[in-house]
Amino acid sequence: MEKTLRAAYGEALAKYGGDERMVVLDADVSGSTLTGMFGKAYPQRFFNVGIAEANMTAMAAGFAAQGKIPFVNCFSVFLSSVGLLAARTYGSYSGLNMKLAGAYGGLSDSFDGPTHHSVEDLAVMRALPGFEVIVPCDPVQVDWAVRYALQKKGPLYLRLSRDAMHPVYGKAADFEPGKGKIVREGADATVIACGMMVGEALLAAQELEQEGIRLRVVDLFFVKPVDNALILRCAEETGAIVTAEEHSVIGGLGGAVSETLSAAGIGVPHEFAGLSDTHAECGPYAALMRKYGIDAAAVAGAVRRAVRRKR
């Protein structure tokens, strides 16, 4: 079985934890976020603050003000809501070097239901001035993102999933800040995806290939800053765009891509695969993905619509 993203994250924290500036804070869910791996290796720099997300994020500001690099951990829905005031005041407005890692993003906390699902966090965090927003798609990218966050000065939001995802990159892969990656070439349409939807888009591409549709797949793991040049290039070269995200279609990756196309005056068909202004119920992860239109079949359907509109 593939390694889960939370396991990859916990391992990366421990791997890079030799940097004495690094501190890790958790809101009593280290068994879920797997930050306990760092805590076991570096107990003197690990702080379980209890179920106090707002206080935890404010504590991180204090660490950052003293030259530390705090990694703040909880479920993404609570970091982007209960922790938002401190993130906005100290990370965004004050520019402190805070790293917020939102675990169990999207619908991946499947059985805990709408109170724990995170379908609006990208829109919230993307709107904070100065914040970078990264959504990794596999363990290789998670490792890179942790290393990048440790090196990059300034506030950053890292959105993680609970589960394993389809492998996308080999161990030798490298990434450029603020730049997406074409992970599959195609000329008939482009799917621009992030997180688990990159793997789903690759599965959709295999299905569509049997129908003669050559699909390009782009991993836009930097949701902010977004790779405007790559978006425009794909629109011009393939003539149709589909955005795929484990998030509401309002304000997240799809919104970012739409803003880029609109600002450049590029009028190509743009279809969305994401949650349609709704919360999601409890259930098995795969069943939720299917019901709310964020699996490979839904992506393939969106591509077919985009290609028909193109013609």
UniProtKB/TrEMBL annotation:
Residues 3-168 form the Transketolase-like pyrimidine-binding domain. SMART domains: Transket_pyr (SM00861). This is Transketolase family protein. Gene3D superfamilies: 3.40.50.920, 3.40.50.970. PANTHER family: PYRUVATE DEHYDROGENASE E1 COMPONENT, TRANSKETOLASE-LIKE PYRIMIDINE-BINDING DOMAIN-CONTAINING PROTEIN. It comes from the Bacteria. It comes from Christensenella tenuis. InterPro entries: PDH/Transketolase, THDP-binding, Transketo_C/PFOR_II, Transketolase-like_Pyr-bd, Transketolase_C.
